[in-house]
Structure formats: C-alpha cells, structure tokens
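Shape is hard to put into words, and the shape of a protein is harder than most. The fold becomes a row of whole numbers, each drawn from a learned catalogue of backbone shapes. The outcome of that step, for a single protein, is printed below.
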Amino acid sequence: MIEIRSPKTIAEWESYYQLRFTVLREPWAQPLGSEKDEGDKSAYHFALFENKELKAAGRLDKIDSHRFQVRYFCVHPLSVRKGFGRMLMNGIENFAFKNNSAKIILHARENAVTFYESLGYETVKESYLLFDEIQHYLMQKEL
C-alpha cells in the first residue's frame, strides 16, 4: 500500500530527516543537521510510504499566493527508478494546484534535470553550485 502524506510520528519525522541527510548531504561530507533549515517550520512536508516504509521525501515552500517551490526532494537509494519520485511529485503538484498555485519552481541538481523534464518542468537557467561541485538549474512548471 502506498501513502503520500506528511510524517506523523516522531519515528516517521526522524526517518524523513535521515533520508534527506543520507541522500542530499552525507555523500558530500556535510554535517548532520545540514539537512534542516528554518523553512522547515513553515513548509509543507511530503513523504511517500510503501507498506509504512519511507521511500521518498520532499518539502514544498509557499513563495507567494500563486507560486510554490519544491525543496529537499529525495528518493531512498534502494528505491530509485521504481516510480516513487514521480508519484511523490504528482502528490506535491496536486496539493499545490488545490492551494491555488499557478506555478512550481525548483532548483534541480544536474543529475535530476531529465527526471524533472519528464514531469513537464522546463529549465529556466543555471542557478547555483552547491558544495563547490553540484550544479543546480532553476526549473519551473505551470500548473
């Protein structure tokens, strides 16, 4: 059974942040805690669970009344290419649409650009270099 929702229990929140750390920070020797920021308090959090096991996570920040930004999007390394990322992005987009969003933006890592393009996102421009080695691209999608 697949569920897309915000983490509920302390254990689910710990798994959620651990996945963000494991995928997005640890491979670049970043410290534990760098997977969190002040925006977590006001953001919408999404997690995809398969049979109660966390497979993917992402955060949605409201920029203004008609735009949201996806941040900290990740899929468990053993669950890549199984459709979980696509399912979670669809859930996030549906939430944004129901909340009057006309557009979603995100800053994709270079290795994820084709994934987002397959979901209908277009590259706007090269944006920033994370940890002096991970090129990011500003992407957007009209809803």
The longest strand covers residues 53-64. The longest helix spans residues 10-24. Helices lie at 10-24, 84-98, 113-118. The radius of gyration is 14 Å.
